[in-house]
Every structure is written in structure tokens, then in C-alpha cells.
């Protein structure tokens, strides 16, 4: 199985969760983890992800925060199994709230400046209703200090069949206990392939 880990905003392939996943999966010859650097405008990031999806067989996605938003779009296009970690639901609004008109355009990375056109793009591509929901496991923590977990709960439980949603009390946006969840995530992927 090819697992594509999709990191969040202002994160990188060196994120703690990406490293934990790579270390765990290195023990199994049948698992390959791909962690692309997505510090680029959203349209380019989605193209990188689309290319990976099309170039590898037996793909599953893990998306964190903004990566969860990207994964949701890819699930709709390709019916892939996905695990979403505290996914961003309306990143265009989140970034407008965070940076406001005064700070946009915002220098995210040396090669990436976030601007209003990119936020408009995110809003335009957003899938209004979750697609292939039964292929999606959503891991939420009520202590998320960045996003309102209830938005994700509503969105991913709105369709039949529903996505698998696991909401835990406390926690945080980074989901510090991610490493303990990796066996469950891999079991979900295994079950999704049946």
C-alpha cells in the first residue's frame, strides 16, 4: 500500500506525525509512505498530490489540518480511503480570519506567498457534501486550539453512509497522541480495501 501523508499549513515533510508514520511503516515491506513538501500555492499542491495518486497503485491518504481539506477533495475525485486529522473545513475563511486584509498577501514560505486569489480557489474547489464518506475516518480532538471540531463533525456525518468520526475530549490541533493511533489507521485502510 502507498500511503500519502498530506501535511498541514506551515508544516513540512519533517513534521512529527509524518516522521512517526514513516518510522512505524518502515517495519512493513508492504507499506510505503510518501510525504511531499506542499509548501506551495494550493492549486500546485493539489497537482502534486494528484500526480502521486495517479502514479502509484493502492493509495491511501492521511491528511492533517489543511492536508485534511486536500485529502477530502482527492477522496471525492478518486474514491480513495482517507484518514483525516483535525481537518480544516473552510481554510479560505480560516486564513482570512487569521491574517485579515492587513497581512494578505502573507509570506508562508520562501517560495510561497498566500493571496486572495488562492483563498478564492480553495473556496471554489471545496466539495459541498462529503463524497465516498464510508471510505473516510475522521479523528478529532475537542481541545483543538486552531479549528472548531464541531464543523468537521457536522460535515462528515451529514451524508449516508456516514464517515467514521472519532471525537476525543481534550487533545490539541497537533494530535500529540498520533503515534498511538497508527495501528488503528492501518487497520482502517486494510478494512477499506476489502
TrEMBL record:
<dbReference type="Pfam" id="PF05728">
    <property type="entry name" value="UPF0227"/>
</dbReference>
<dbReference type="InterPro" id="IPR029058">
    <property type="entry name" value="AB_hydrolase_fold"/>
</dbReference>
<protein>
    <recommendedName>
        <fullName>Esterase</fullName>
    </recommendedName>
</protein>
<dbReference type="InterPro" id="IPR008886">
    <property type="entry name" value="UPF0227/Esterase_YqiA"/>
</dbReference>
Amino acid at each position: 500500500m502507498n500511503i500519502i501523508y498530506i501535511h498541514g499549513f506551515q508544516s513540512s515533510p519533517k513534521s512529527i506525525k509524518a516522521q512517526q508514520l514513516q518510522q512505524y511503516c518502515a517495519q512493513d515491506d508492504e507499506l510505503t509512505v510518501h510525504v511531499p513538501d506542499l509548501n506551495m500555492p494550493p492549486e500546485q499542491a493539489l497537482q502534486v498530490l494528484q500526480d502521486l495518486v495517479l502514479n502509484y497503485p493502492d493509495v491511501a491518504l492521511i491528511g492533517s489540518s489543511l492536508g485534511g481539506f486536500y485529502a477530502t477533495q482527492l477522496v471525492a475525485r478518486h474514491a480513495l480511503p482517507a484518514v483525516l486529522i483535525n481537518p480544516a473545513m473552510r481554510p479560505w475563511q480560516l486564513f482570512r480570519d487569521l491574517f485579515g486584509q492587513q497581512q494578505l498577501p502573507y509570506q508562508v514560505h520562501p517560495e510561497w506567498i498566500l493571496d486572495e486569489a488562492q483563498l478564492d480557489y480553495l473556496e471554489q474547489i471545496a466539495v459541498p457534501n462529503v463524497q465516498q464518506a464510508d471510505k473516510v475516518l475522521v479523528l478529532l480532538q475537542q481541545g483543538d486550539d486552531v479549528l472548531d471540531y464541531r464543523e468537521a463533525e457536522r460535515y462528515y456525518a451529514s451524508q449516508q453512509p456516514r464517515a467514521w468520526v472519532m471525537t476525543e475530549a481534550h487533545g490539541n490541533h497537533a494530535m500529540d497522541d498520533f503515534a498511538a493511533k497508527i495501528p488503528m489507521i492501518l487497520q482502517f485502510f486494510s478494512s477499506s480495501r476489502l
